[in-house]
Amino acid sequence: xxxxxSIQHEVAYYECDINQTMTFPAMLSVVIKASxxxxxxxxxxxxxxxxxxLTWVITQTEISIDQLPRVGEKITVVTEPTAFNKFFCYRSFxxxxxxxxxxxxxxxxxxxxKIKERKMSSVSPELMEPYEAPQVKKIQRWEKIEPVENGExxxxxxxxYDLDSNHHVNNAxxxxxIIDVLGYDFMVNHTPVAAKVKFDKEILYGNDITSVYQIxxxxxxxxxxxxxxxxxxxxxxxxxxxx
Length: 243
Fold this sequence. Notes:
Thiol Ester Dehydrase, Chain A, acyl carrier activity, alpha+beta, Acyl-ACP thioesterase, globular, fatty acid metabolism, transit peptide
């Protein structure tokens, strides 16, 4: 395994929803900050990577939730780069409360993208050396994401503040489109316990996207797709428990 790194964070009210629990976008932003801080410390930060004409992109994530962090709670985020191969880098995150109890576990896969060409780049051992993560040949296999078969949909337009410094939609924004369609009543009566998300395609400024969803009450899950025209940009499954 690689070098571990941790940050402390106090959950702010603006990072929480009406249930006073941390939102998916807020959690994603905080854990990504932990990995960014570690990269800065190892001289592999955003500026250094950008100078090579490259940027990191999340391709897949799996989230396991024992309990969502609550407003005002002081949490510790621990991250560890676990492995890399020619094209993918794998990183895990843990969120703990003040007593050291694990609240959330997140696994992610990243690729390096060429900024100008918007194409995937190979990952060099030299780039990854400071992280001390083992180089592997095997590509990690993720749990299959069930497709939407009989869904409803809602349209959204990509706004300026939906973009990040890479000029594409921030990964956290996908969760806003995924969650928003479920509605007020569903969200106040359900708590997420697990999620798996695959990011298939970049979404750009000015795109009109369709958030397609299916609620499977019998199995306590929701199925999601984000589409740009006929192209699949993101797919997700979320498992829920009733309050």
